[in-house]
Design brief:
- The strands form 2 sheets. The protein has a 6-stranded mixed sheet with strand order 1-8-7-4-5-6. A two-stranded antiparallel ribbon has the order 2-3.
- Helix 2 crosses helix 5.
- It is 30% helix and 20% strand.
- By secondary structure, it is an alpha/beta fold.
Length: 193
């Protein structure tokens, strides 16, 4: 099979697609099959960006799993934690209690929004009923929300967590399941800036 020539403008798109087609699990049975679009798992390390280096988050909006609408614009002037997850992802299940707890402890000064990526809606709704996160999740089956971050700070793992500052800029990113203290420290730092 011969590869088609790729223009330089397509390189960034291809890089994101390469990440998207990697598997969430580390063993052979968890590896993606043709057409699979799961992310790879990161190590959960929180990367915080200096204020001068922060890039604006794209405008995102979508229907939530409960039939409402969620957007970054609705939380303008507040710190927002944007978590990309899926019900089929083991690390997402593991980090759910951490997100729920930090969301509850920072409520009022920080808003949380989930982005359910490449999932079956019924499975995602069952996950939300079980975890009772306390915050809305956009149902993003086609992955459009994740792709909107291409060119800024992409959520290149599943789960991924982005912290958006009060000016709407990406202040921090964790690839993989977040750790409680890392998330709490980062959210508090960004909120108190």
């Amino acid at each position: 099979m011969r590869a088609k020539p790729v223009s330089l403008g397509s390189v960034g798109s291809l890089a994101l697609v390469a990440v998207l087609v990697s598997g969430c699990a580390g063993n052979q049975s968890g590896q993606p099959q043709a057409g699979d679009t799961r992310f790879v798992a990161g190590d959960g390390t929180m990367q915080v960006f200096a204020a001068a280096d922060r890039k604006p988050a794209p405008a995102i909006e979508g229907e939530t799993l409960d039939g409402g609408t969620a957007s970054l614009a609705a939380h303008k002037g507040k710190v927002v934690v944007l978590n990309f997850w899926a019900s089929w992802c083991g690390p997402c299940r593991a980090e759910a209690p951490v997100l729920k707890d930090v969301a509850a402890k920072t409520k009022g000064g920080v808003e949380f929004v989930g982005v359910d990526f490449k999932d079956r809606k019924a499975d995602a709704q069952a996950f939300e009923r079980t975890e009772q996160t306390g915050y809305p999740s956009i149902f993003d089956q086609p992955g459009k929300v994740a792709l909107a971050f291409q060119g800024t700070v992409p959520p290149a793992a599943i789960p991924s967590t982005l912290v958006i500052d009060e000016q709407g800029r990406i202040a921090a990113r964790a690839l993989g399941a977040v750790r409680y203290q890392d998330l709490m420290d980062t959210v508090t730092k960004v909120r108190d800036e």
